[in-house]
Amino acid sequence: MSRIPLLVWFLIPTLIIIGLGVWFLSKNPTLSPQEDQTKAAEVSQEVEGTQVFDIVSRDHISQGAPGSGYNSNPPASGPHWSAAAKNGVYDTSLADEQVIHNLEHGHVWISYKPDVSDDVKDKLKEIVQKDDWKVVLAPRDKNDSVIALVAWGRVLAMDEPDYAKIEDFIKVYRNRGPEKTPE
After folding, report:
1. Is position 180 within any domain?
2. How many domains does the chain have?
3. Contacts of 105 (CB under 8 A, 6+ apart)
4. What's residue 34's pLDDT?
5. Is 178 domain-assigned?
């Protein structure tokens, strides 16, 4: 008779722990594969003007090696180096292959043509410095547009800055890469 309560004390907590473990593993999106690795993560409302591109690849290439096969400018996915850039503001260009790794981790990359006015640069820096979690700002002379906002599988090109739209892009697409990381 005294064995029944002892059994109950071990059996019930064990079943609860197993149940919670199954629930956690089935609900945690970082532990389950993305449904379609060739598509960008879905959002409820795209930021107007944002182009969505198929995911080229998530392959790592040797540090310093050039990537190829990109389907957007700036690239929004594809072969990249294994070392990501630190978030924040840069005054010099970064290699596309480096920043693509940031995109894979859910960062937003804001690139601008180096000859953009100082007023525009200052406002972009202000936006990023206000909240630089998973945001990289750097000049890029290969841009097709004056300013390009990039997230994993998405590009928003601007020839005239729309600062409200830039902030919306960051809010909507930040942390939407296939690898969820805390940095």
Report:
1. no
2. 2
3. 84, 134, 177, 179, 180, 181, 183
4. 47
5. no
